[in-house]
Write a structure and sequence with these properties.
Blueprint lengths: L6 E6 L2 E6 L11 H16 L5 E6 L25 H10 L3 H8 L4 E5 L3 E2 L1 H8 L2 E5 L3 E3 L13 H9 L1 H10 L2 E3 H6 L5 E3 L4 H13 L3 H13 L5 H16 L2 H12 L9
Parallel strand pairs: 2-3, 3-4, 4-6, 5-7, 6-9
Antiparallel strand pairs: 1-2, 7-8
Helix pairs in contact: 1-3, 4-5, 5-6, 9-10
């Protein structure tokens, strides 16, 4: 019997749904095969302008359990190596590729969090642009409970979403919070019934996909860059991108449709 792929994809129009596909293991993301698959899928999708938005979710009852605890044992062949210097290299060549990839993507990504998002699973959700949680979802930045730290950028990601004080609390206690608290602190933007999760994610994806793809992608690029650079640099970037946006046929179509009082038809030109 062949081994199922670690990640599944489904294309429907301009929306790509990406599903972590190891439900029996609660979708850990630290395995090289999982990292390779996610990187390959999202890099290809980012190059394809006919894909306007992606939805990331998990198969089974969990979004992602984060790291594989079995692989954390000495000599288990996971990220942890006998030589600490090699462990560093393993992280760089492995799971640390994911936050760098998601930060560089121009394709908008919605996390549809169908269940627990724990440790690196929470960090993966934080790498996405929008987060929608099912009512059954649970969240924990739980590395400290295992005597380790977030090796995949959680200390950079989480404070930018929920603020330094709340991120510090979750990171130092390792406590688990439910979907209602995640909504209250701004970790997720919406909480819906489990049965409505994918429909809600698809509705948000369709709202994004309805817009001109060049403008959508450049808007995301500006938002991501603004996390790390000065206002003057963002203004310079915005001016250059605006010049590109003004030259697109989709921009002309939007203006003409407004004055013609009709819905626009965007073609990605």
């Amino acid at each position: 019997m062949s081994t199922p792929p670690p990640v599944l994809t489904q294309r429907d129009g301009a929306v790509l749904t990406v599903t972590l596909n190891q439900p029996d293991r609660r979708n850990p993301i630290s395995d090289p095969a999982m990292v390779d698959a996610l990187c390959a899928i999202f890099e290809a999708a980012d190059r394809d302008l006919s894909i306007h938005v992606a939805i990331l979710t998990g198969a089974g009852s969990a979004f992602s359990s984060g790291g594989d605890l079995n692989a954390m044992r000495p000599d288990a062949g996971g990220l942890r190596a006998g030589l600490p210097a090699q462990t560093r290299r393993n992280y760089r060549a492995g799971i640390q590729r994911l936050p760098l990839l998601f930060q560089a993507l121009e394709l908008p990504v919605i996390a549809a969090i169908n269940g627990p998002a724990i440790g690196a699973g929470l960090d993966l959700a934080c790498m996405c642009d929008l987060r929608i949680a099912a009512q059954s979802a649970r969240f924990a930045e739980s590395f400290v409970k295992l005597g380790i730290v977030s090796g995949d950028g959680g200390a950079w990601l989480l404070p930018r979403i929920i603020g330094f004080s709340r991120a510090t609390r979750l990171s130092l206690t390792g406590e688990t919070i439910d979907a209602a608290e995640a909504l209250a602190i701004g970790l997720v933007g919406d909480v819906v019934a489990d049965a409505d999760l994918m429909a809600t994610a698809r509705a948000q994806a369709d709202a994004i996909a309805a817009n001109p793809p060049h403008a959508t992608r450049m808007t995301k690029r500006l938002l991501r860059a603004a996390q790390a650079v000065e206002l003057s640099q963002i203004l310079e970037m915005a001016g250059a991108m605006q010049a590109l946006a003004h030259a697109t046929a989709d921009h002309d179509e939007a203006i003409n449709a407004f004055f013609d009082r009709r819905p626009p038809t965007f073609k990605g030109d």
